[in-house]
Design a protein that fits this description.
heterodimer, B: two-stranded antiparallel ribbon, globular
Chain lengths: 111, 501
């Protein structure tokens, strides 16, 4: 279980970082989304990983830690909202500039 | 009584949210609510300051879930100090923005109030995750405020800042996860209590989390290797927005002060921060000297003030923290004032704007040049304003620490080059007149409010200098409380401690 989770997080982070370093807004946003998935999984794993149980039940233990699950829920909502906002900003930037490159041509944006 | 802690959250929330329900009446309603909420926060901030002035740490447990299990808001001297500074700055900027910035786009006042909500919340947060949440609140408002108004440059600046801070938030969550899995808690007081006796196999995770956290806060505070986003963003933003943003970097600084004094004193991050701070100073005054617009000058002045602040804070002694906090108050108001005055200058110069080239003559208009002079004096740290006293206190505190010579050279050098840069800007703007540029234009409408906004910040700066003795004493008390970790832990965990864990 741990190995699977670790591999998934690692793959998501690697893909996310690669995409975030691309010069187009579209890839950057995809990269950001992958990174936020990775960090959500990481947060979930921070309370320890247990398979086939649920927190806050009257079944016999061991129970997983419920707090990281609550944190992840909050983090998902926040990163969802943030990503939505950045996409809107990016769309506006594209419609104003006519392209989605982040490395603007010299002279395009003066001081 | 402890419910007082909710007011810094509820007042901006109400001031921002309620006008949205009022239907189509729009701007007038938002403007009234925004002004009211911002001005109401002044007495609230004073009351909070009074509540913390006795040295007690006021704790509010949401829903009466006691720490470390519930959401706690904690008001100590540091939080009260910064809330007061924020409230004063916000009042000045709010008065200034009425009738100008708020007409260049929709819902300016709503965003402004949410920005304040996030800032106040970040100062009051009693655990790491709520600090994260309030950071996100202030960030999401700041993206929208940054792109407020129009222009491709502004939108792109907002996108850059947003992407960068989205990355920062990711790192923040990784840090939170590391610290949680190492210590099993996120409450500041509980973390402080457990920091001393962590099992050895968790120590690596703990330290990784701690350093990641410092990286995130340094990104917010625009400390050297992470501060390159700031000038572009502040330059592109509307002047009033940029003035409000001069408190944002201080939120990062305060977060670093909080975690370094309370939770990670064993990390010994001081020397690293100090080196970065010296570099930040150099970057800041180089930028000031090479600025081509007043807005760029002011943006780099923010970087210089962050550098000076960190040089002092990084020693983590009582004197250095006290000097740093006094400087934080002064520097925030001073850079805010410089942004406001620069904006005003850019407006009256018509199409020349705030570019540092010969423009129209300021014949017979003395108020604005004098305001710029005072703002420049405040930013550069010349007597008689408080910046001079703050730097004196900082150098005095640095005498006992490591790297004294470097600190002296950097702080004094930054002051000198700031003076040169500001004098150059003032000379170009006020003393050289471009051919066929005519005279500066009169601005239509709402002038008294804008002037009163500038005047409010000026009066605050003068008061800070006039009562420098008591203010420095207060800052000393703040610092003393910060260094007394046990008191914080006792105040927050209280009864839970006797029960054992």
């Amino acid at each position: 279980m741990e190995a699977l989770l670790a591999t998934a997080i690692g793959a998501l982070v690697a893909a996310g970082v690669y995409l975030a370093l691309r010069p187009r807004l579209f890839s950057i946003l995809l990269g950001m989304t992958l990174l936020s998935y990775a960090v959500n999984l990481f947060l979930l794993a921070s309370g320890g990983v247990l398979a086939d149980t649920a927190p806050l039940t009257d079944r016999p233990g061991p129970w997983p830690d419920p707090l990281p699950q609550a944190l992840v829920l909050t983090a998902i909502v926040i990163s969802f909202g943030m990503t939505a906002l950045v996409i809107v900003l990016a769309l506006r930037a594209v419609s104003e500039r006519g392209h989605d490159r982040v490395d603007a041509a010299p002279g395009e944006e003066g001081e | 009584m402890n419910g007082l802690l909710l007011l810094p959250l509820l007042v901006p929330l109400a001031g921002g949210l309620l006008p949205l329900f009022s239907g189509r009446s729009g701007l007038a309603m938002e403007r009234g609510a925004g002004l009211l909420a911002t001005l109401v926060m002044l007495p609230v901030a004073v009351a909070l300051f009074q509540a913390a002035a006795g040295g007690q740490i006021v704790v509010y447990a949401m829903g009466d879930w006691q720490a470390p299990f519930g959401i706690t808001l904690v008001l100590d001297r540091l939080a009260a100090w910064m809330i007061l500074v924020t409230a004063v700055l916000a009042a000045g900027v709010m008065l200034f923005s009425v009738g100008r910035a708020d007409e260049s786009g929709r819902h300016f006042h709503v965003l402004f109030q949410f920005q304040l909500l996030g800032i106040y919340g970040a100062f009051l947060a009693g655990d790491l995750f709520n600090l994260f949440v309030f950071f996100e609140v202030l960030l999401i408002a700041s993206y929208a405020l940054l792109s407020h108004g129009a222009g491709a440059e502004r939108t792109m600046a907002a996108v850059r800042v947003a992407v960068l801070n989205l990355l920062g938030s990711t790192v923040f969550l990784v840090a939170v996860a590391c610290i949680y899995s190492a210590a099993g808690t996120l409450n500041f007081a509980d973390l402080a209590r457990r920091a001393a006796d962590l099992p050895a196999d968790r120590l690596g995770l703990w330290q990784a989390g701690a350093w990641l956290l410092l990286v995130v806060f340094a990104l917010k505070a625009a400390l050297l290797p992470l501060g390159f986003w700031l000038p572009g963003a502040y330059r592109a933003a509307d002047g009033a927005v940029a003035a409000l943003f001069s408190i944002l970097t201080k939120v990062g600084v305060v977060a670093i002060i909080r975690v370094c004094t309370l939770i990670f004193p064993a990390l010994d991050a001081g020397p690293v921060i100090q080196v970065a701070a010296l570099g930040t100073l150099v970057l800041g005054f180089t930028g000031m000297l090479s600025a081509r617009r007043l807005a760029g000058l002011a943006a780099h002045a923010v970087i210089v003030s962050v550098g000076v602040l960190f040089v002092s804070v990084a020693l983590f002694t009582r004197d250095s923290l006290a000097a740093g906090l006094y400087y934080a108050a002064h520097g925030t108001l001073a850079t805010g004032l410089l942004f406001l005055v620069s904006t005003r200058i850019g407006m009256v110069r018509g199409e020349t704007g705030d570019r540092l080239v010969a423009g129209p003559a300021f014949r017979g208009r003395t108020a604005l040049p004098v305001a710029f002079l005072l703002a420049a004096v405040a930013v550069a740290g010349l007597p008689p304003l408080g910046g001079f006293l703050a730097k004196l206190a900082i150098l005095d505190a640095a005498m006992s620490g490591a790297g004294t010579a470097w600190t002296f050279a950097a702080v004094l050098g930054a002051s000198l080059f700031s003076i040169v840069a500001l004098a150059r800007a003032g000379t170009i703007v006020f003393w050289t007149v471009g051919r066929d540029r005519g005279e500066v234009v009169e601005l239509p409408g709402w002038r008294p409010l804008a002037v009163s906004g500038v005047a409010l910040l000026l009066v605050a700066l003068v008061l800070l200098a006039a009562f420098a003795g008591p203010a420095l004493d207060q800052a000393g008390e703040v610092a003393a409380q910060l260094l007394d970790r046990d008191a914080y832990v006792r105040a927050v965990l209280g009864a839970g401690l006797e029960g054992g864990s």
